[in-house]
Structure formats: structure tokens, C-alpha cells
Write a structure and sequence with these properties.
By secondary structure, the protein is mostly beta strands. Helices cover about 15% and strands about 40% of the residues. A hairpin with a 7-residue loop joins strand 11 and strand 12.
């Protein structure tokens, strides 16, 4: 199944930075989305009256030597995400910090930077995100008629315009549960290892999903199928310049081959480029009287039952193999 998609961060490894307290950003250590950051690197300083009060409560509890109050005060500081280094300093100096530095929870690339120095922030505000590029997702779409051919774990091949000739190997990671009501397509998520961080978010990708089936199916070239609103047909090559259109029931299909469920027998010769034989009037008739009888013999191919193996389909050369898979 051939389709296209876009590279995204692996959201399983994407960390969103949210404050637990309200306050003001006194200093911002990172400047722009796309900057690399390392785990433990300072991100921003915050002045928060709530954090100041929580520190004062801890000092008051230790002055009273009340273990229960001390433990409760420490739990509150941890719940407000006071860094461990700041708590250690508080215990050592017993001095309240007006400005508290917040640090990066992981190494990666900065994304969605939404604050500036002097901004007032509140709990739940998304300040920034940090994503890793060791693995990436690719969001792709398949047509509704192809959805049944896609399964989690199937191998995927991908190539990109920025590095022609190089293929990335991945797999189908997730199939979304709903279709797009406008495009009638189903979203699928693909996962790829990203050696040397070569793949960047938002890159355009060309994708082949290698679906397989162990059952034997009758298939014809997809261009041999004439699809109309209420029926699907193929044109039979009867010999001596005679042709006949027959109604067929189709099943699975991709860019090259279409499965025939009924209406056609194995070995029957069909016109592989039937669409070019029609005009607006002849497409409405069953006998195709206006077809050109001087057709090239190479455009007639026999239908043949074979396994629907899309991996092999991609490697077939139509010029060397006149039989449909």
C-alpha cells in the first residue's frame, strides 16, 4: 500500500513542561524552539508566592521540631515540584529562596516554547516541550477500501526527498479507531528508528506498507477495472478483435492490483488499460460498441490466482511479467 505521511516526535518520549504553581518567569535560559537541551539543564527561574510560603512553612515546622508537620511540609514542596537540589539547599541553609530554578527532566530538542521572561504563568499552562529524536513517528493515511489490509506490526519502507535513494525500515505502530469523515481515510501511525537524528519533525515521507495475505486470490491489474457508481467491470479480450465487458465484484486493491471476488475466471484475458477505451457514451453501454478494435496485443493480460503478497508486488516488473498477481 503506497501512501504519504509526515514525520513527528515520538509522543511517548515527548515531555511537556507544566508549572504546579502560579508566578512570574524571572529568567529564561532557553531561547527558541529547536534548541538542544540536556537533562538537568536550567530552563527558567520562577518567583512564586506559593513556593515562598511553602518554604516558610517547612522552616516553621523544623523550628517546632514537629516530625509530622515537617514531613507534611516536605510533601507539599515535592507536590509543588520544588527541585530536589533546591530542597537540599533549603535544608542546609534554612533560608527561603525567592527565585527557584526549574530544570530539564530529559535530554532532547526544545519544542513549543510558549513563555518569555516576565510572563505570568499559572498551573496547567504548557510552557514548553522536550522531545527526543532517537525514534520518530510518521503519521500516514490509507483509503477506507485499504484499511482491512493494514495490521499492527506490518513492515514499512519509507523514503524522503531530502535523502534520495535511502530507505528507512519501520513498522505499523498503531491504527486509529475512526475514519476522517471528509476524506474517508484512516490514519495509521508508523514507528522508525532515527539513526544520527537524520529524520526531522514535519518532513514529508513516501511510505509503502507491506501487507501480506496467505490466501490465494484472483487479481488483475488495477487499471483493468472500470469503476462506476453502481458496478465494477473489466473488458475481456475474446480474440479476433472482439471484446466484451463483464460485471465483477472486487475485494482488496492497491495501486497495481485489484482482487476479483466473482465474475471472472483464472486465465481469462483482460484488457489492462480498459479505461482508455471508453468515452462518455460507451461507458453507459454493456457491449462497448465504440471500442477501438485495433488494440495492441500487449494490453491484454490473463487473470491468474496467486497469493496477495504486496511485498512481491512492489518488486514485479510489468514488462517482464505479463500475468497479474
Amino acid at each position: 500500500i503506497k501512501t504519504v505521511g509526515f514525520v513527528k516526535y515520538d509522543e511517548d518520549q515527548l515531555r511537556h513542561i507544566h508549572p504546579r504553581v502560579a508566578g512570574w518567569v524571572e529568567k529564561l535560559y532557553v531561547k527558541a524552539a529547536g534548541d538542544p537541551v540536556k537533562k538537568g539543564q536550567p530552563l527558567y527561574d520562577i518567583y512564586s508566592p506559593e513556593l515562598v510560603n511553602a518554604q516558610e512553612e517547612w522552616i516553621l515546622a523544623t523550628d517546632r521540631k514537629n516530625k509530622r508537620l515537617i514531613k507534611a511540609a516536605e510533601y507539599r514542596l515535592e507536590a509543588l515540584r520544588l527541585p530536589k537540589s533546591a530542597l537540599k539547599r533549603l535544608k542546609k541553609t534554612r533560608q527561603v529562596m525567592q527565585r527557584v530554578t526549574m530544570y530539564a527532566p530529559q535530554s532532547g530538542v526544545l519544542d513549543n516554547l510558549a513563555i518569555r521572561e516576565g510572563n505570568y504563568i499559572k498551573p496547567g499552562t504548557s510552557l514548553m516541550s522536550i522531545g527526543t529524536l532517537k525514534q520518530v513517528w510518521v503519521e500516514a493515511e490509507v483509503f477506507e477500501r485499504q484499511a482491512a489490509q493494514v495490521a499492527i506490526g506490518q513492515p514499512v519502507t519509507m523514503n524522503l526527498d531530502f535523502l534520495p535513494g535511502k530507505d528507512w525500515l519501520g513498522k505499523v505502530d498503531y491504527i486509529y479507531p475512526t475514519l476522517d469523515t471528509k476524506t474517508r481515510t484512516l490514519r495509521v501511525r508508523l514507528r522508525f528508528d532515527n539513526e544520527n537524528d537524520a529524520l526531522k519533525p514535519n518532513m514529508f515521507a513516501q511510505v509503502i506498507i507491506h501487507s501480506q495475505s496467505s490466501d490465494t486470490s484472483l487479481v488483475v491489474p488495477s487499471e483493468a477495472v472500470i469503476r462506476s457508481g453502481n458496478m465494477d467491470r473489466v473488458v475481456l479480450a475474446l480474440g479476433e478483435g472482439r471484446f466484451k465487458a463483464v460485471k465483477v465484484k472486487i475485494g482488496r486493491l492497491d495501486d497495481e492490483y485489484t482482487e476479483i471476488l466473482s465474475g471472472l475466471d483464472a486465465g481469462t484475458r483482460v484488457v489492462s488499460s480498459a479505461q482508455f477505451l471508453l468515452d462518455s457514451e460507451s461507458s453507459k453501454t454493456s457491449d462497448f460498441k465504440r471500442m477501438d478494435h485495433k488494440m495492441d496485443h500487449d494490453s491484454m493480460k490473463p487473470a491468474k490466482p496467486e497469493a496477495m503478497d504486496h511485498n512481491n508486488m512492489e518488486n514485479m516488473n510489468p514488462k517482464n511479467n505479463e500475468q497479474s498477481e
